[in-house]
């Protein structure tokens, strides 16, 4: 359901700006008939802040404003959401950018076309209950590590941390725990010894003393420390042939997301609470807001994916995954900023 708000000065200014944008960019406004108005979109862990721009865009009716009917299917993690598109039950994924690199290494061409997150927003922590004497990453050998879903970006982050300490993925057991209440329960009940996951889950565990954070990409600074450069995160991506056959539809999707990003630039914590579904708060409004403040600067501003960020992602993946040969990947085919640039112009994001 789309919440109804009284018209505020910001809403009015936003509407005026949109009107001005329509006059200034008549060709954009008349971007052509949508090839497809019904879109099946797959996401892995929609309640996470990682996908907040998607939720905001949906809840405020921005997809509908672009003439789209978007049906969102939520899976346990990004790898599962990707399987839905590969299997043909979804058109587009809202997921981690690095999947496009992974897929290209397997000769499957997917392309990201609008960015939602400019930092991975993933934290890796060890259980204070199961590992009270933790000293270094080497202590994780033989342990159970919770991730949103095996093969997801949370798994990738854990692999990176392990590889830097000389451990291989096969030295631990990865267990899919989702990104919400199930993840909290798995860690607190002692089913797992450590966890790589997103907010609000990780902040909730951290503030209650359930985890000790050992690697953190919830801020731009933390991301630079871990990856050595900007690291693009959530984006909308799809098979390249889908994008080529449905350019107007992809433009409408990018417009809607960038509209949501523009709203998020000035939204206060109270606006967020009013807009997201109640169950996303995981029963603790205060901690949810504390998490939002922590990841706020990780949200993309205008939907454009930085070239340097694509290089960082490739470097990170190639560092621990021997199947990814950096010299064989054509990064220019893993993303396009064509749609996001038009959307940025339209909404002055």
Automatic annotation (TrEMBL):
GO terms for cellular component: periplasmic space. It is found in: Periplasm. Keywords: Signal. Residues 1-30 form the signal peptide. Residues 50-264 form the SsuA/THI5-like domain. Its main location: periplasm. SUPFAM superfamilies: Periplasmic binding protein-like II. GO terms for biological process: alkanesulfonate transmembrane transport. It comes from the Bacteria. InterPro entries: SsuA/THI5 (IPR015168), TAT_signal (IPR006311). Belongs to the bacterial solute-binding protein SsuA/TauA family. This is ABC transporter substrate-binding protein.
């Amino acid at each position: 359901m789309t919440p109804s708000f009284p018209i505020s000065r910001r809403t009015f200014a936003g509407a005026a700006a949109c009107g001005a944008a329509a006059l200034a960019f008549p060709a954009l406004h008349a971007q052509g008939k949508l090839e497809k108005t019904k879109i099946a979109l797959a996401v892995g862990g929609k309640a996470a802040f990682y996908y907040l721009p998607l939720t905001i865009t949906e809840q405020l009716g921005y997809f509908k404003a672009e003439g789209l009917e978007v049906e969102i299917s939520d899976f346990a993690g990004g790898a599962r959401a990707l399987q839905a598109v590969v299997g043909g039950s979804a058109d587009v994924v809202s997921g981690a950018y690095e999947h496009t690199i992974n897929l290209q290494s397997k000769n499957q061409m997917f392309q990201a076309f609008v960015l939602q997150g400019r930092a991975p927003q993933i934290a890796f922590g060890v259980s204070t209950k199961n590992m009270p004497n933790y000293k270094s990453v080497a202590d994780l050998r033989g342990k159970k590590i919770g991730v949103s879903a095996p093969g997801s970006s949370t798994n990738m982050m854990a692999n990176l941390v392990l590889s830097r300490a000389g451990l291989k993925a096969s030295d631990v057991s990865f267990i899919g725990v989702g990104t919400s209440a199930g993840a909290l329960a798995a860690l607190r009940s002692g089913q797992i010894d450590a966890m790589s996951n997103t907010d609000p889950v990780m902040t909730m565990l951290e503030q209650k003393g359930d985890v000790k954070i050992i690697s953190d990409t919830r801020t731009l600074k933390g991301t630079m420390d871990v990856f050595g450069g900007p690291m693009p995160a959530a984006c909308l991506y799809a098979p390249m042939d889908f994008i080529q056959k449905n350019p107007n539809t992809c433009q409408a999707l990018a417009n809607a997301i960038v509209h949501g990003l523009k709203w998020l630039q000035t939204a206060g914590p109270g606006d967020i609470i009013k807009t997201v579904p109640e169950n996303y708060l995981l029963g603790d409004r205060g901690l949810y807001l504390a998490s939002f403040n922590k990841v706020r600067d990780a949200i993309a501003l205008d939907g454009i994916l930085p070239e340097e960020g694509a290089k960082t992602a490739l470097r990170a993946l190639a560092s621990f995954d021997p199947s990814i040969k950096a010299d064989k990947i054509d990064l220019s085919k893993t993303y396009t900023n064509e749609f996001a640039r038009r959307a940025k112009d339209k909404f002055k994001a």
